[in-house]
Amino acid sequence: MERVLAYLQEVKYYGKAVLLSLEAPGVAAEAVPGQFVQVLCGRDSPRVLRRPFSIFSAKAGRILLLSKVVGKGTSWLAELKAGEQVDLIGPLGRGFAMDEGDRPALVAGGAGIAPLHFLAERLMERRTEPSLYWGLDLGEEFGELPALLGKRFRLFMCSRDGCLGERGTVVEALAREKEPEFNAVYACGPREMLGALAKEIKGANLPFQLSLEERMACGVGACQGCAVPIRSARPAYSRVCKDGPVFRFEEIDWRAYFGGS
Ligand SMILES: Cc1cc2nc3c(=O)[nH]c(=O)nc-3n(C[C@H](O)[C@H](O)[C@H](O)COP(=O)(O)OP(=O)(O)OC[C@H]3O[C@@H](n4cnc5c(N)ncnc54)[C@H](O)[C@@H]3O)c2cc1C
Ligand code: FES
To answer: Is the pLDDT of residue 111 over 80?
Structure first.
């Protein structure tokens, strides 16, 4: 883990998201899928909390970050231009264990595609071809990116508004598979999606890893701001930033995570 001022080589715009290509050789060499970086969003503003972004890709001394604009920090990132510098810390957290099965399903909701894209790249390098399921609220949210990824991966798209791929959620799409041939599941997305997915596949007894996107403060394990309940004889918590963001399904106390429901 290191703090770097990364040179921004290229910015691409995809709907409401930007893909940033950053020169960060140390981070790129060390990173594994599921890890993230903490980005200082805003110049000369040390009081601003860094924002976490999963690593979308890491190769040849560069990392790619995909950021969907949702608020102030991500709006600031979306206005950066090639040639500027970005202050980041990483790689952080625990990534995915990659040797779980030779027919993995990767299930992403919205910006949750970022860590799963990196995972898909690394699995392909190991000659394992994943099936990538990506669900969006609005079909246009990520512009041309789904079409580009569809050329490289076995990709199934769905959107709630029905404007891209099948209409409905990604979990419904996975459930409709006639002959599920997966022997491992990896997922990243909003809480509700992960909850629905957990219900859908919990009886299947498959290796199931999820990357949780909790709100974070320090991002390095010091403040407990990202704690999630874990299964244990006594109430216990793990920090998403340090012990995660990737967890195994059976590690999380899902009842407590969803507030007892
Ligand atoms: C480990 C991790 C990896 C992430 N990877 C990515 C990524 O690759 N690409 C990406 O686009 N985003 C990712 N996120 C989410 C990203 O960090 C937030 O969208 C970002 O911090 C929002 O900053 P902001 O200042 O623009 O929004 P704010 O002004 O802070 O908030 C705007 C809105 O976004 C919501 N929001 C903020 N943070 C989160 C969050 N963590 N989860 C859900 N809702 C949130 C707020 O509730 C609010 O409604 C990741 C989060 C985590 C914890
Ligand atoms: S964000 Fe501070 S401990 Fe995780």
So the answer is: yes
CA angle 247, 96, 191 (to 5 degrees): 45
CA distance 119 to 114: 9
Is the pTM higher than 0.90? The answer reads yes
Tell how far the Cα of 216 is from the centroid of ligand 1, in angstroms.
9
Q: Which of 32, 70, 113 to mutate to test the pocket of ligand 1 (most atoms within 8 A of CB)?
A: 70
Superfamily of domain 2-92: Translation factors (2.40.30.10)
Contact 160, 167 (CB under 8 A): yes
Domain 104-213: CATH architecture, name and number where available: 3-Layer(aba) Sandwich (3.40)
Q: What tens digit of pLDDT does each residue of 19-67 get?
A: 999 999 999 999 999 999 999 998 766 557 789 999 999 999 999 999 9
From the CB of 92, is ligand 2 less than 6 Å away? no
